[in-house]
Amino acid sequence: MREHTMRRGRRKFDDDEPDFLKRGRLEPALHEDPDLPPDGDRWSTWDGALHGPEPRPDWVRTEHGAVDTELGVLKTGKEADVHLVRRSVPGGPSSMLAAKRYRDGEHRLFHRDAGYLEGRRVRRSREMRAMTNRTAFGKEMIAGQWAAAEFDALGRLWQIGQESGLVCVPYPVQLIGTEVMLEFVGDWETGEAAPRLAQVRADPDVLADLWRQTTDALSVLARAQVAHGDLSPYNTLVHRGRLVLIDLPQIVDVIANPRGGEFIARDVTNVAGWFRSRGLDVDAEGLIDQLFYEAGLR
Q1: What is the CATH number of the domain that holds 85?
Q2: pLDDT, tens digit, 9 for 90 and up, residues 92-131
Q3: Which of 159, 115, 80, 54 is nearest to 256 (CA)?
C-alpha cells in the first residue's frame, strides 16, 4: 500500500483570521438582505467562502448567480444540524448539498470537547483562555474549530481517496464560519440519503467487502497519523457499494493528542462489534496492532 501524508489545501482555516466567525452568521442575511433571489432562499454563498480542494468535481456550482433552496432537515444532533440544500443556476444545472450547521455557544453541548481538543491549539492566548474557560466567546470559537477541523479533514481525506481509492468521504464544497457545505451522499432525484452502515442488511460476501473497505480506510487514517475519533456504524454510509466516512469534526491527531491510541482502539472496537454481531469473524485486536504500527505508535 502506498503511504500518504495528509496535505493541506491552499485555503486552510486560520484561527488568526479576524472575520472568520463573522462570516458564519448566515441566518440574518436570509431575512435582512433586500436583494434576495426571486426563486430559492438565498443567493449562493460560494463567493467569500473557503473552498474545497482542486480539481473540483464537475457538479460543484461556482456561479455567483446560483441560488440555494432549503429542502428540509436531514439530521439533527447535539452538536450540529444537517440540512438538504439544492444549489442551482436558474434555468441551468444544479447540485445537491448537505449543509452542516454547528450550534452556537448557547445551544450546543460541550461535554465531550476536552478529550478531542487536546493537541489542538490556537495561536492567540486570549482565544485559548476563552476556550479553556468556556466563555460565550470561547464556545463560539470551539464551534468554529469543530467546523474548520471537519472541513480540513474532509478536504485532505478526499484528496487521498482520489489518489488511492482506499478511503471515501463526501467532497467538502465550502466553509463559512460554523457552516460546512458538503456533497450530499444519496439519491439526488429523490433527496433520499444513503443508508447508514447500521441499517444495512447484507449477505456474507458483501459484509466481508465492507469490512475490507473499513480496514483500508482506517489504515489510510493511521498512516496519516489521525483517527476518526468517533467511528461507528451510525456515522458511516453505504452508497453504491462504497463505504463513506462522515462526521469528522472530532478527528484526532494521534501523535499530538496523548490519548491518540485510545481513539484508534475505540474506532476499531465500535465497528468490529457491529460486523461480529452480523456473523462476520473479524480480528479487531490484530487490526488495532496494525494501525498502531502504521501510525508510528509502536
Answers
A1: 3.30.200.20
A2: 999 999 999 998 755 444 444 555 555 544 445 554 454 4
A3: 115
